[in-house]
Amino acid sequence: QVQLVESGGGLVQAGDSLRLSCSFSGRTFSSYAMGWFRQVLGKEREFVAAISWNGGSRYYADSVKGRFTISRDNAKNTAYLQMNSLKPEDTAVYYCAGQIRSAYAPVLLRDHEYGYWGQGTQVTVSS
Fold first, then answer.
1. Residue 23 CA to chain centroid, in angstroms?
2. pLDDT in tens, 81-96
3. 59 within 8 A of 49, measured Cβ to Cβ
4. How many helices (H) and strands (E) does the chain have?
5. CA distance 33 to 67
6. What's the pLDDT tens digit per position in 38-81?
7. Distance from C-alpha of 54 to C-alpha of 38, rounded to nearest angstrom
8. Contacts 24+ apart (CB under 8 A), 41-49
9. What does the radius of gyration of the chain's CA atoms come to, in whole angstroms?
10. Which DSSP symbol is given to 15?
């Protein structure tokens, strides 16, 4: 069974950086496309970034483009989300998600396309 565990969240000030990690276990990590989503209490979960199984394709939400970078290390079974120039509006619980790769859709942008989710990590950005 696939398990995803996020880490790296915390409380930072506007303009600071954080790197989230998503540790993957239970299956072959390189067979999975990965994504990051975030959710504010009372709002719908929002797409942040996605990466293909080999890192060759990446996609970002407009709100984070140029500030966030998604990456993966298949040797370490870990996906990352580097977040720079953080803003108060980036405050949310961040979730990583995984789904077995498809030749037709190397990156997945919608939460219902993912079958596996982590428990989330809180990111709070103060102004």
1. 11
2. 999 999 999 999 999 9
3. yes
4. 0, 11
5. 21
6. 999 999 999 999 999 999 999 999 999 999 999 999 999 999 99
7. 23
8. 45/95, 45/111, 46/92, 47/109, 47/110, 47/111, 48/81, 48/94, 49/81
9. 14
10. T
